[in-house]
Amino acid sequence: MSWSKIPGQEFAKNVLQNQLREERLSHAYLFSGAKGLGKKALALELAAASLCSRENFESCGRCLNCQKISHDNHPDVQVFGPAESKKSLGIDVIRELQRELALKPFEAGRRFFVIEKAEEMTAQAANSLLKSLEDPPAYTVLILLVSEESRLLPTIISRCQQLNLHPLSREKIASLLQKQGIRPQFASHIARLAAGSPGRAQELAEKEELLERRNEVLNFLAGLEQKNDIEIFSAVSKWSDWFAEDFPLIQILSEWCRDLIVYSCSRSEDVRNHNFLQDIEAIATSSNFDQLSRMLELVEKAADDIDANVMSDLVLSVLFFELKTLMEADETEKVDLQASVYQGSDL
């Protein structure tokens, strides 16, 4: 890994390189941005560039320190995060981190600690980490990685140097994929779906099954109005198993609703699921804006319910039946829906 191998993020890379040259690294960083933008890669490159034996402010990839970091076995570069079986990052993880913080560097002048999904810290874990951020050992650098900065304590944010990572353009992602030998048309299709995330684009390009499953869900959504109860229950049962295996079902549903809203605003060029444009057009033009907005609200509520540990198969079943009911609404019901939305607003 080197700075140049991290796609985009020029501002963040320049800031960190300049701080390395001037020997003024912060004691704590907060890298924020959507999944797949390269937060962890940036954190590990900062560590490698700092500890590289060649001392050229960039990792060489060949010295012993760089090799150990790339193989995740350098004693002075450690990554912490939620346990595989847990969504939250508990106090036990932070206590382990604090035990490591008390130890001086084993092989280098600094120790780097990366905390993945820092927004998943429990209240107890966050308050404990705050104490370490207030008075860290001089030889340590803590790097918090978050996708949702708003979920962190303001006091934690204020004690870190913040660097926000930004989505890449479709053209940039398509170009990166084509350099890997992916045909232009397919690269352009993946770039639309990636929503600016090179990591997500790479995953879609490498996992053909992921795209096949995605298309199955979208085909079902396109014809949801004609599906009977048995078909819905059968599909949800299968997709619940996929969801348990980290298939991004809620994200796909959210993006489908987003595409419907985007198309209804006469912005078909911004539709991500462009291979379903005709289906999106048919649904969007037969629905009013409030109806489409309500569909997205239902998906967001389902996501919240699942995060609150409500059974996913139950949540998804209810969601699909509610979506179908909205799509089947006649003109009178659509008017009633629109009126109810306005009554609940501040307008």
Total domains, how many? 3
CATH superfamily name of the largest domain? Answer: P-loop containing nucleotide triphosphate hydrolases
CATH architecture of the largest domain: 3-Layer(aba) Sandwich
Q: Please give the order of strands in the largest beta sheet.
A: 2-3-4-1-5
Rg, Cα atoms, Å: 23 Å
Helix and strand content put the structural class at alpha/beta
Give the N-to-C terminal Cα separation: 53 Å
Please work out how many helical segments DSSP would assign.
Answer: 16
Order of helices and strands: HEHHEHEHEHEHHHHHHHHHH
> Hey, roughly how much beta strand do the residues contain?
5-15%
Q: Which regions contain 5 or more consecutive residues with pLDDT less than 50?
A: 331-347
The largest pleated sheet is described as: 5 strands, parallel
Number of strands: 5
Pfam families: DNA_pol3_delta2
GO molecular function: 3'-5' exonuclease activity; DNA-directed DNA polymerase activity
Protein name: DNA polymerase III, delta prime subunit
